[in-house]
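User: Show me sequence and structure for the first protein, then do the same for the second.

Assistant: Starting with the first protein.
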Amino acid sequence: MPANEVEPRYSPGQVNSPKGISAKLAARPMLARVAPFFIYAFLTAFQGKLGPDSKYWIYAVKTLLGAWVLLLVLPWVVEVKWKISWEAVLVGIGVCVFWIGLDPYYPRLGELFQKLGFSGSAPKPDRLGDLWNPFVQYGASVNLARFFVVVRIVGSTVIVPPIEELFYRSFLYRYLVRVDFTNVPLGRFDVSAFVITSVLFGISHGEWLAGILCGFAYQGLVCWKGRLGDAITAHAITNFLLGIWIVWKGAWQFW
């Protein structure tokens, strides 16, 4: 914080209130863009760790919590505005196509680590018990399984895109260009930041190669259009179409 700025002071009650939290977010641009992502990632780490049902109910919880956190930060992150453009639609569809099409031709991240000798005991990602498939878990309760499928599609379409785009494309990319990232235009192109952000985005997914290419596509869209909204829309289209494909074809390995 610059020397001439004074950090706002809040009482414990204010800080823990919605108004106090919003004030903190307003004073800290980084927090507003990073907090939703790490809260979501933190809960993701517990999916399946609290019993076999937890991979489903924790997803529902993090979707609701993610929506709440987004509502808190949205007033302070003006770049999070959904924009529908033909470029966003084409990128969203194209990413879904190569995400599915490339799948048989390269090892997933866990398998790659095994081949490189870094994770000899890692479970194979395609084992039936490791798949996110509520119809296996709740075979006797089809309606419950359908509920979790709807939650997954809604979460990945409406909640995940703004959270991830806010972190990777709004914060991380610009932070790698310049520490005072809010002064970096969204449309600025920087090779190092472009590659690093896309690679980190890619390896955060099991489908690392498709993820890296996906990162290139979304980041390129942001640089091209000079705004975040097109990438959010493209990301949402990709995730929605992928969710429909998964349910239609039973390709649960993508979840």
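Switching to the second protein now.
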Amino acid sequence: MKTNKPTSVKTHLILTCFMMLLAINFNGQTVTLTLNNIPENILCNEIWTEQNLDMSLVETTADDCTSGSGSCYFGFMNQAFNSFPLWLYPSRLTIDLSSLQNVQMVEVDIYDNCGFYCTQAFLMENTEIISSKGNSLSIESETLILENPTQEFLTELAISSCEGAINEIRIYQNTSSINNESSGVKKVLRTIDQLGREVNHSNHKLLFYIYDDGSVEKKFVVE
């Protein structure tokens, strides 16, 4: 008579890892800025709003492509002929992020026309640069990706260039962290054993507790 052989330990571990990956999902929301509503007669240091975020064009700083600070020149392209609505030559676009919580990542679609690292983006906390990225391509479209893995509080996103364009900006927030901070308590979504099976409770076994913020806690239950 044939008997079924027990599944190998290796297979158990693979199954467990697979189940944990399925269980851990990033819960987030995206704020997309198209820059299509900039007033045509806007001046340097004047503020306009998109997606409830205050934005303005200001003078460049020593961190930008210019050798010094003080330049604020920009222009707009007709959307029918050019997909990039805002050109900087040179200038700095600033976006107030202080109303957004738990920003994990920002993507900026750009077109650089002045050379390596001439178009740059900065995530700021007041005057401190938390993350920065410059272009590696020139006379070609590129997406600059700025990460904030520890979700530090951010006050500003700044984008500058001596001759470059901005098409779209996407700001990604971790809403799981926002919800947990509001409630102050994270909740268990599922409990699984080493085989990936969902269990209610079991003594003297290694269990994995999967929480609503995407974290996983390993416990050996003894009572």
